[in-house]
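#data-curation
PF: Archiving a pair of folding outputs for the training set. Convention for this channel: one message per protein, sequence first, structure tokens after, nothing in between. First:
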Amino acid sequence: MKSILIQQKVFKAISGTYPDNVTEEKIVEDDEIAYSSIILNLSDTVIRKVGTQNSAKELWKKLEELYTETSLPTKLFLLEKFFKYKLDVSKNIDKNINEFTKLIQDIKLTGDKSIDDYSPIVLLNAIPDTYNDVKSAIKYDRDSVNLKTVINGLKSKEIDLKANKPSQNNNEVNMVRGRTKNRNSKYKFRRHKNNDEVYMICDVNAVNSSVNINEWLVDSGCTFHMTPFKEVLTNYKSGKLGSVSMANEKLCDVHGYGDVCLSFENGFKLTLKNVRHVPDLCHNLMSCAALEEDGLEVMYLMVSTRPDIAYAVSCLSRFMSNAGTLHWEALKWLLRYLIKSENTGIRFSKCSEGVKLIGYVDSNYANDRDSRRSTTSYVFTLCGACISWKSQLQNIVALSTTEAEYIATTEAFKEAIWPKGILTEIGFLKNNVTGFSDSQSSIQLCKNPVFHDRTKHIEVRHHFIRDIVNKGVINLEKISSEENPADMGTKSFPIEKFQKCLNLLKLS
């Protein structure tokens, strides 16, 4: 952390060693940068412990009190752990050395600088039986020993053990002598002339590790496309391009890159650019992040068959590269919706009372916690069947529930003019559009042409509703919230209320 602050040239905010000619504004700016840099590198648990500090210097001091405590019990605990340290044979040497070095560093923070004199001896005594020859060579062949010598000896021995490790895949064959089912002692077996084959049963411990060259696994974790097969790459360019870190902490070298053309059964072809050649891989890997950069997204349901899930798919696709538990739960909700609504649709029936275009409108005041904007929801029906619907946030912040309902009514009946024009032109619609709202206040504002204090601040375009109501284009009437199906577009409902709204719109 100190190195980061020094690199950003703001460590003076911690030490307080500013020249006399530095302005107060510069000191405050450095303090803000240092404070934010420290906070961003702390875990949530630590932030809760130090969150009350108001400056970088106070924050640094608090962290020192928490994690550089030099009390006697702490020192005794670390020393006991140090002198009893043993190498863990289940881990490699690098991980063991990292743990041992961290333990030494913690002891030094308590003020004990003499620990370096004992560290080679402690590490030498921590060596397991597998490394006894290293221990003997260092112990008896040298006049003095240091920590670097012990570490180098352990690493060399580890390399030798890996190189000389015997293969675990031993094949065993059980040779048996068989006989026929015939128990007659005079029976003679005749071998057929063409029967020269020998059948062998072999007990093999190894697993078939063959990989399908045409099989590609979509991986949300890899940064780019990778393949172990050089023969599938076109425009291949070889070279040392670094290494790839795998999930098991293994580093695999990249030997080159090229393009791969994939053909599908429906005739569609997909070209993957800059596919890395990694011979040590076990499978072909296709990167989700790289596909997104190329503009390729799997949205067949959204585009072709179920446009009602467009918003949910759009939200979930933002987290494809790094999805968490909450995103997985949201995806399960979406899949659950698709399954349950598979047989649900709009029911159209004969217009027994003539063609009627009816609209329902509602809003939810300031329901968005981030922007505090309200939600507009409206539904239009023709002969009782749903033909148009919408639910979205308003583009401005309303100051009251009446204003939110007023804006929602305007947006809804702007939509009504288009179907009314078409139906009137072809001679189907004889009556005006009937609109229903559950807000008496917004209805009165729509019918009142006088501008007063309650409406002066509302944008001019939202007063369009007054003009069409005054001309008689629509008839605006009051309806109870229980009978307003547009209410389901503003909030979540219990299943009974939600089902009632669906029945009002002939959705079954």
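PF: Second:
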Amino acid sequence: MVLPNSRHDYLPPPGFFTAMVGLQCLGIIIGVIGNIIVILYNVFAINPKLPTTYFVISLATTDLLVCCTCYPVWLIEFASVAVGESCIVHDLFCKIGFTTLSTGGALSIANLLAITIDRFIYISKPLKYPMIMIW
């Protein structure tokens, strides 16, 4: 007999977790390949390196670290639920996932803010931009 307030009443169907695992694997693959392409293109490009180029490389590196650290932890969590087994080290994975997501999110936001400020200075003070952005 399952009580109405049982944990099993609130779980989605098993196909949902299988689909989520597949989508997360796809997201990891696309994220890693895409960010590596962005990094390699900007590092080996012939055109001169502007401050924006370094900000884009930094953002791609941060996103690559999130794809390689945060998403696999989530993947393990979803896979353990899809299989029907509780994760043995659930608390550890929860703490690692929260820490990597918080750190990666903060770094991504900081990079986007730096790119925004860079573009604002480039548009609002085009003649002073080289002196302001190159210290």
